[in-house]
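User: I'm designing a mutation panel for TauD/TfdA-like domain-containing protein and want to avoid disrupting the core. Could you give me a predicted structure to guide residue selection? Please restate the sequence first so the numbering is unambiguous.

Assistant: Good idea. Sequence first, for numbering, then the predicted C-alpha cells:
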Amino acid sequence: MSSTTVITPGTITREKKENGDPLYPDYMPFYDPLEKVEDIGAFEHFDPGHRADPKLPNLLKNATKVWDLSPHVGTEVHGVQLSQLDSAGLDEIALLAAQRGALVFRDQDFVNIGFEAQKKLVSHFGPLHIHGWAPHPAAGSEEHMIIYDHKE
C-alpha cells in the first residue's frame, strides 16, 4: 500500500509509510543551537514584476481557474505548477503579487522537486533569508519547516 497526502480545504492529513516513518524524511526539522547565521546585509533589489507582461500570458496559459478571493486582496490560481514556470512566468507572479497582495497556488509539487530546485525558484524573487532560530532540514538552512501532525 502506498502512502498518500490527502489535502481537503480546511484540513491536512499526513499519512505515514506502513512502517511508521514520515513520508518525507528529508524535510524533518533539524536544529543546531551552535549554528551561526550571518546577516544577509544590504543588497540592491530589482522587483522582477517590473519585467512582467501585464497580461500575464506565461503565468495564466495553463491556468484552469482564476478568481479573486476578495475585491481588493487575494487571488487563487488553479492548474499552474510554479516549478514549471520560466523566468517570464515568475516575473508575472511578482507582478500579480504586487497587485493582489496574496496569491494561492494549490497542489504544488515542491516536496518532490528537491531543495536545490526550490531554492532556485524562490531566489528569482530576491536573496534568501535564513531564520537562525527556526528548525530546518539538515540539508539546507534556507528552508523553513512547518510540520503539522495530529492524532485523530
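For picking mutation sites, this is relevant: Residues 1-31+134-152 form one domain. The longest strand covers residues 5-8.
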